[in-house]
C-alpha cells in the first residue's frame, strides 16, 4: 500500500491542484493524506475527502513541517510513503516512475527531480529555478556520483516505511 502525504500551510489556492495531480495516478488501494493547520487549506482537503475516499485530512499543530510530517507518519498506513507539498504539481506518470524502483527490495528511498514552472525573467522565478536546479538536482547528482548519501528532495520523495519513523523537529 502507498501513502501519499501532502503537507501545506496557507496554500488553499494550490492544494487542490496538488491533490488532483496525485489522484489521477494513485493505485486503487493507495491513500492521500492532506496535512495542514490552517482552515482555508483544510477546507480544500476536506472537499476532496468527501468526493474521493482515498483522501483524508490530517490536522497538524502548526509547529512547522517536521511536526506536520510526524503527525502524518503516525496516521499513514502505507508500506511506501510519498512526500510532497501543497504547492507542487507532479507531472503525469511521475508517481509510477517514482515508485518503480521499489520493485527491487534493496531500494529504500527514491527522490524526484523538481522542475520549476515559474518564469525565469522574474526575481522569484529566477530563484525558484536556481534552487530547484543548482540547489537540489546538482547537489543530489554530485553526491550520487561520488557514492555519498542520497539527498532527497522534499518536493517529491518516497521511502520504505521502516526507514523513517520520526523526523527531528529541527531537521528543516
Question: Brief description of this entry?
Answer:
Helices cover 38% and strands 18% of the residues. It is an alpha/beta fold and 172 residues long.
What's the topology here?
Blueprint: E1 2-7, H1 12-23, E2 31-36, H2 39-51, E3 55-59, H3 65-75, E4 80-85, H4 94-99, E5 109-111, H5 123-146, E6 156-160
Parallel strand pairs: 1-2, 1-4, 2-3
Antiparallel strand pairs: 4-6, 5-6
Helix pairs in contact: 1-2
* Structural class by SSE content: alpha/beta
Number of strands: 6
| Chain-averaged pLDDT | 86
Distance between the termini: 27 Å
| Helix/strand order | EHEHEHEHEHE
The number of helices is: 5
Strand percent estimate: 15-25%
Overall, the morphology is: globular
Sheet of most strands: 6 strands, mixed
The amount of helix comes to 25-40%
The side-by-side strand order for the widest beta sheet comes to 3-2-1-4-6-5
Indicate the low-confidence ranges by residue numbers.
Answer: none
Q: Give me the Rg, rounded.
A: 16 Å
